[in-house]
Each structure stands twice: as structure tokens, then as C-alpha cells.
Amino acid sequence: MNIPENLKYTKDHEWIKVDGDKATVGITEFASKELGDIVFIEVETEGETLDKEEAFGTIEAVKTVSDMFMPIGGEVLEFNEVLENAPETVNQDPYGEGWIIKIKMTDPAELDELLTADQYKESIEA
């Protein structure tokens, strides 16, 4: 299972990669495998400012639909348009081309509340 060290994680299986005051958000490889074949991703929160743990969109797999949650508070700046026509990209490359949204962080201190790669690994092995 690939769990990159340079990312922070949530208990809900989202990851976040910080670049200055902006960040990229996606779901983990573990989540993509648990969901199975992803067939649709909906994000209608572009331009909105959301709180930590607020739902920013939904992800639909063959068997289920799940909410995706903000790892930290911020404004949703961009949705990965590749996913409109190729949602399976999340299954194929969850930490790269399969990113889901980019945000502008409102309180970077919230990052300290997220899980490290080791802590996330422990949480999914428990």
C-alpha cells in the first residue's frame, strides 16, 4: 500500500499536500481500493469556503456513493477537470493525476491535527 511520507491524512481517507497557502486534496490509495471502480466524482463547491470536515463533494463507485470531506478549512479553488471524463484516474494514480481539488487554506494550523503517514498507516491496519 502506497502512503507517501510528504502528505498529511485524515481518518476519513483524504490526503492533503501543502504548497505555500494552497493545498491539493485527494483520497488515499486505501480508499480508492475500498471503493472499487470509481465511476463519477461530483464537486459543486468550487468558489466556496468550507470548514474542516465539511463535505466538499461526492465520489461514486460501482457499489456505493461516499462524501469527501475537507481535511482543513479553506476555499475550494479548483476541481480536477480530468476526473469529469476519466474518474477512474483516482483508482490509477490517487496521489498524482487523480487529485480532486485545490484549496486556499484559511487556517494552516489545522494541519497539525492531521495524521502523519505512519499514523494513517496504523489507523488502516487496526
**What is the chain-wise order of helices and strands?**
EEEHEEEEEHHEH
Spatial order of strands in the largest sheet: 1-2-3-9-8-5
**Total count of strands:** 9
At CATH level 3, the topology is: OB fold (Dihydrolipoamide Acetyltransferase, E2P)
Question: What's the gyration radius in Å?
Answer: 13 Å
CATH superfamily membership: RNA polymerase II/Efflux pump adaptor protein, barrel-sandwich hybrid domain
| CATH architecture level-2 label | Beta Barrel
Helix content bin: 10-25%
Give the count of structural domains: 1
Structural class by SSE content: alpha+beta
**Alpha-carbon distance between the termini?**
15 Å
Give a topology summary.
Blueprint: E1 8-9, E2 14-19, E3 22-27, H1 29-35, E4 38-42, E5 49-50, E6 55-61, E7 65-69, E8 74-79, H2 82-85, H3 89-92, E9 101-105, H4 117-125
Antiparallel strand pairs: 1-2, 2-3, 3-9, 4-6, 5-8, 6-7, 8-9
